[in-house]
Design brief:
alpha+beta; Alpha-Beta Plaits; two-stranded antiparallel ribbon; 8 strands; globular
Length: about 200
């Protein structure tokens, strides 16, 4: 089983500190600054959503250029190989892959270059927000980004390190098996005494 980071919605306060730390950590590595996790709110609860590093990763199966591979107990996305087709994001069951891009420093703004100045007054200050998988901007090359467990850092995932309420933690295979065993035991202990009698009769007819 691959390692992954998971959030406890009972502890998360929705402060977005994890997103800021993720962005800064990748910026320092010269990677896309778009955060690899997104804090979502459902009802009164908030929690970051990020890659679960699936063992049988659908994103890796659909990538036409093999930019997504299984390495070191995690799913690795090579941003330099990505062609921005967005297929990986469409098949991700957790919505944990996002297209991100930036234009070259010297590239002029689209409106400034192609739209006559007398028409610029009619251009709205901000365009309607569009789904990132449908958005397109001239001169910007999008690449997919996802949680990479901050594999470049000896300190591990930046989000886990900075969370003020310890709502984020890394899940290892042995931890998952141990927690699963505890929950199974708790479920059995919570069953009424009558169930033990039924099971006993089935095992010893």
């Amino acid at each position: 089983m691959n390692r992954f980071v998971i959030a406890d919605p009972q502890l998360c306060i929705g402060c977005n500190t994890c997103m800021a730390a993720c962005s800064e950590a990748h910026k320092q590595q010269g990677l896309q600054t778009h955060p690899r996790l997104t804090v979502v709110k459902i009802g009164e609860l908030t929690a970051p959503m990020l890659c679960r590093q699936c063992d049988d990763a659908p994103c890796a199966r659909v990538c036409p250029v093999n930019a997504i591979t299984h390495e070191n107990d995690m799913i690795v996305l090579n941003e330099s190989l990505c062609i921005g087709c967005k297929l990986c994001g469409l098949v991700c069951p957790f919505g944990a892959i996002t297209p991100s891009g930036s234009k070259p420093v010297d590239m002029p703004d689209f409106f400034e270059q192609y739209v006559p100045k007398e028409m610029l007054l009619d251009v709205p200050d901000s365009l309607p927000t569009m789904n990132p998988f449908l958005a397109w901007n001239a001169g910007i090359r999008n690449v997919a980004v996802k949680c990479d467990m901050c594999d470049f850092s000896e300190d591990g995932p930046a989000c886990v390190k900075v969370c003020p309420t310890d709502a984020l933690h890394i899940v290892e295979e042995n931890q998952l098996e141990s927690e699963s065993a505890k929950r199974r035991t708790a479920s059995v202990d919570a069953m009424p005494p009558e169930f033990d009698v039924i099971v006993s009769r089935q095992e010893n007819p």
